[in-house]
Design brief:
The protein contains 13 helices and 9 strands. It has 379 residues and is an alpha/beta fold.
């Protein structure tokens, strides 16, 4: 009798697993046609990749007190490096900045793809804005993160001997930034702020980054090529107020709009975790609003005023103030579009030759919108 019960339970488990697998496969994202340009750009590049977790400590800058956390005289940056394992020569470097209440691996899919094409990518858990921050995540510390970006660049360029996991060196003429949500804001500050920007930055991507409060004057402090990637159904960072103005605000800026894209849809964890949800951003709003105890406009004003091109707009939609009700795009498709967009953008600036750069620019301007119905690149 026990044997019969055990066999029955095993059969039920197998059936449940099979049903789950069939459901998982049946609900996968719609991939671009195999012969399409985007499908080719989604393939891993010519290099095998690896990761290394390390810790960089900036002893010249303090981590301020945060609620019940007393602070410290240094800033500790637990960092992951993605890198090609069999590539010599000088590599482009991309620093990725994570979102508020997130972690350094939130765009790991894009970091891995870049590494397979010869890039070194570094992302750190910022001291007071990552999910495990002492005292709880505090968005105000974003004003210190551009300094963290510069410190990371210095630290990675200086790696040598056994501490340097990749062959070759860093090409200091090809340094880019990538950031998601609050990390997108970090990228914008580190690229354009008149005093906090790092002049070594040669290309920048903001993914669902807030821009309300930054005028054309702010973005005129640098002519760095810039790409904003944003979802039209973003519940946290309103698309119309933050992303849509980019082509008119930045002379060398462009926009990759993802129709139906959400804020959480960019995060690596959303695929497959959130693929069955109509719209996942309510979860993100709960996490952000629980830790957001300062008006974002007040934080922006810590960076300067009208002279720096910083003029908050109190009438602009706030974080999570507008709730889209439409069906969200599949997060897997959103991440495919993002992966192609990120890689093609950096290759359009950092590619090894004119032909590569021109081909990559064509991907941004036309191929993505041809291969994905949800991709839109307004001029």
């Amino acid at each position: 009798m026990l044997r019969k019960i055990a066999l029955t339970l095993c059969a039920l488990v197998v059936l449940a697993f099979g049903a789950g697998l069939i459901t998982y496969l049946a609900t996968g994202p719609q991939a671009p046609a195999a012969e399409s340009v985007s499908a080719q750009w989604l393939q891993p590049g010519p290099y095998a990749t690896a990761t290394l977790d390390t810790v960089f400590v900036d002893q010249s800058r303090a981590t301020p007190a945060n609620r019940d956390y007393a602070g410290t005289d240094e800033r500790t940056l637990t960092t992951t490096l993605w890198y090609p394992t069999n590539a010599e020569g000088a590599h482009p470097l991309v620093i990725h900045s994570h979102g508020f209440t997130s972690t350094r691996t939130d765009l790991s899919y894009a970091a891995e793809l870049l590494a397979s094409h010869g890039y070194v990518v570094a992302a750190a858990d910022y001291p007071l804005t990552f999910a495990g921050a002492p005292g709880g995540p505090n968005s105000v510390d974003v004003i210190n993160q551009p300094g963290d970006v510069s410190f990371l660049i210095d630290s990675i360029i200086a790696l040598n001997g056994d501490a340097k996991p990749f062959a070759g060196s860093i090409d200091t003429a090809r340094i880019g930034l990538m950031g998601y949500s609050l990390g997108g804001l970090t990228t914008e500050i580190a690229t354009y702020h008149p005093t906090l920007r790092d002049p070594r930055i040669a290309a920048a991507v903001s993914i669902a980054g807030p821009t309300v409060g930054f005028t054309g004057t702010f973005f005129s402090h640098s002519d760095v090529p810039f790409l904003m990637i944003a979802g039209t159904l973003d519940h946290l960072i309103n698309f119309d107020a933050n992303a849509a103005p980019i082509p008119s605000l930045i002379d060398n800026g462009s926009l990759l709009a993802i129709d139906g894209g959400t804020h959480l849809g960019f995060g690596a964890v959303s695929e497959p975790l959130f693929r069955f949800m109509k719209h996942p951003d309510g979860l993100g709003c709960a996490a952000v609003l629980a830790n957001l105890d300062t008006d974002p406009n007040d934080t922006i004003l810590l960076l300067g005023g009208a002279a720096e091109g910083i003029v908050p707009d109190p009438s602009a939609p706030g974080v999570c103030s507008i709730t889209p009700d439409e069906q969200a795009l599949h997060p897997g498709e959103q991440q495919m579009i993002t992966s192609v967009g990120v890689l093609a953008f950096f290759e359009s600036v950092f590619g090894n030759d004119d032909a590569t750069r021109a081909s990559a620019s064509q991907v941004i301007s036309s191929s993505l919108s041809t291969d994905f119905a949800a991709a839109n690149t307004p001029q």
